[in-house]
Amino acid sequence: TxxxxxxxxxxxxxxxxxxxxxxxxxxxxxxxxxxxxxxMGYAIAEMAAKAGAKVTLxxxxxxxxxxxxxxxxxxxxxxxxxxxxQDALDNDSVFVSCAAxxxxxxxxxxxxxxxxxxxxxxxxxxxxxxxxxxxxxxxTNAFCVGFAAETQNVSDYAKSKMERKGITMICAxxxxxxxxxxxxxxxxxxxxxxxxxxxxxxxxxxASKIKVAEQLIELIHQVRPS
Length: 226
Ligand code: CTP
Ligand code: CA
Prior knowledge:
Layout: H1 2-6, E1 14-19, E2 23-27, E3 30-33, H2 39-50, E4 54-59, E5 70-74, H3 78-88, E6 94-97, E7 104-106, E8 126-128, H4 132-139, E9 143-150, H5 154-165, E10 169-174, E11 186-195, E12 198-208, H6 209-223
Parallel strand pairs: 1-4, 1-6, 4-5, 6-9, 9-10
Antiparallel strand pairs: 2-3, 7-8, 10-11, 11-12
Helix pairs in contact: 2-6
This protein binds cytidine-5'-triphosphate and calcium ion.
């Protein structure tokens, strides 16, 4: 694989990668967020750049350095991430949607820090965020690759997610396991690829997220219609 990427097979291609969580403000000091270290998305961005692609990384707040040669836009909310992806995507891009986008955001953001009152609980009303991957799949010709972090029925949920979003490739990982996934340096993916009315399945890893990224890039490059 290393050989493969060093031959720069992605030269001339534009890859857009989302990574990390989105954070949705409740008030100036509090937010709702998803669990994501950003490591998998950053590894994909890094290795795609090494393989010769022009890479745009749209990242939620994470504590990782921007990989060499990668153009990175930092965002906080799902709305902001959608805008950057809309700006970045060309019709012939590859879009790898690795971010853990918050499904909901507080309906309103308090402009001042909220104060406790009495001993009552607190109810925060939420509204749904835009689905960035679905937008990309429906509104552009980019080749879209989704991720599905699941805690149960991993294959079934991932396959139905692929249908629902209108994409042909999805990478599932089982986040209920503590040896792979969240904040780990290792990962194992079960990749589903839809071709006409059959769905192929391919396992990548367990291996370091960098190795997994290399193999995934090679697979995307093979599968993507050109
Ligand atoms: N995704 C996205 N925008 C959202 C939600 C998800 O772009 N608002 C992308 C993720 O980056 C991932 C894929 O969609 O590539 C699947 O995300 P997931 O949260 O597993 O799917 P959902 O459709 O949100 O379904 P649910 O959370 O209910 O399982
Ligand atoms: Ca979700």
